[in-house]
């Protein structure tokens, strides 16, 4: 119970899928706020948050761009835009931690989120992992898959899944 | 981040299945110690632990008793013995909390542990639930079932499952 090393909490975060809303997803913001309120509380020196944002290279950036790729530079430009959005996302979380006075780190990785999160858990060895979840029913889950479920099963550390509250669920619950 | 109400953590605990070891199971003791070390830390006034021990009425007490039931009193006596063991189990956890100075409550219920835990979550509304797990492989799980997996899926609050460490696994990993 002595001070010692802070508890290292990995928090997986992603972007909202809502059009025209270039911010954190509702569920990842919820998971972050829950962690502060229910775990960290006033003990800011006892914890360190390790944010992980996994960018899905193949899907990102096509939604609202209608892009035509005519040259290698177009691809480079798209990748650059993705990166900017990822950095913007992490800045949101890091800034809040900074304001509260809790230590944090943030990293962006590319790949399949569920695979990359489990891989990073192995590499970084957090004390536990927090993931948000849309709280979809079994029928919806079949089609969209859920990162949280995969991580709860496969990540090599304790995992706590924070479901999005009913009051924050958008019109289409698959959105986030 | 202000003080406010403490975070209420329900901790499901059970007895060891090891013969001649009338104490908490390895996994529930591990889950409790993990919670203190990684979540509560030095912030003892920020949390309240709600211990829940579910006694399996049909199985308990037959292991090492070789009982013959010749009269209704024999059943009453067995129930009494079960109760004593349950109280002894909870005393262990409550005493530790008392020594550390963290608020707690403990209750004993009868029934199917996984069902009762989920029912108590609904009734008591903890902020989250901590359950220990033996960390069995898929093959072993088929035969013994796991309370933690059921709760992670069905409990109406966030659930964190703490796997028993490899170094504490008894000869037969189904034991606990």
UniProtKB/TrEMBL annotation, chains A, B:
<dbReference type="Pfam" id="PF00582">
    <property type="entry name" value="Usp"/>
</dbReference>
<feature type="domain" description="UspA">
    <location>
        <begin position="24"/>
        <end position="163"/>
    </location>
</feature>
<dbReference type="InterPro" id="IPR006016">
    <property type="entry name" value="UspA"/>
</dbReference>
<dbReference type="InterPro" id="IPR006015">
    <property type="entry name" value="Universal_stress_UspA"/>
</dbReference>
<dbReference type="InterPro" id="IPR044187">
    <property type="entry name" value="At3g01520-like_plant"/>
</dbReference>
<dbReference type="InterPro" id="IPR014729">
    <property type="entry name" value="Rossmann-like_a/b/a_fold"/>
</dbReference>
<protein>
    <submittedName>
        <fullName>Adenine nucleotide alpha hydrolase-like superfamily protein</fullName>
    </submittedName>
</protein>
């Amino acid at each position: 119970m002595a001070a010692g090393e802070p508890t290292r909490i990995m928090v997986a975060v992603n972007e909202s899928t809502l059009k025209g809303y270039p911010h954190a997803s509702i569920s990842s913001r919820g998971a972050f706020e829950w962690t502060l309120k229910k775990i960290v509380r006033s003990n800011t020196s006892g914890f360190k948050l390790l944010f992980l944002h996994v960018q899905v290279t193949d899907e990102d950036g096509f939604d609202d761009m209608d892009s035509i790729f005519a040259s290698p530079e177009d691809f480079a430009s798209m990748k650059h835009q993705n990166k900017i959005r990822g950095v913007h996302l992490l800045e949101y979380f890091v800034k809040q931690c900074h304001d509260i006075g809790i230590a944090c780190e943030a990293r962006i990785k590319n790949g399949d989120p569920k695979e990359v999160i489990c891989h990073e858990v192995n590499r970084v060895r957090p004390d536990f992992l927090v993931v948000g979840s849309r709280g979809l029913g079994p029928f919806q889950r079949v089609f969209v898959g859920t990162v949280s479920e995969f991580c709860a099963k496969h990540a090599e550390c304790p995992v706590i899944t924070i479901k999005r509250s009913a009051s924050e669920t958008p019109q289409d619950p698959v959105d986030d």
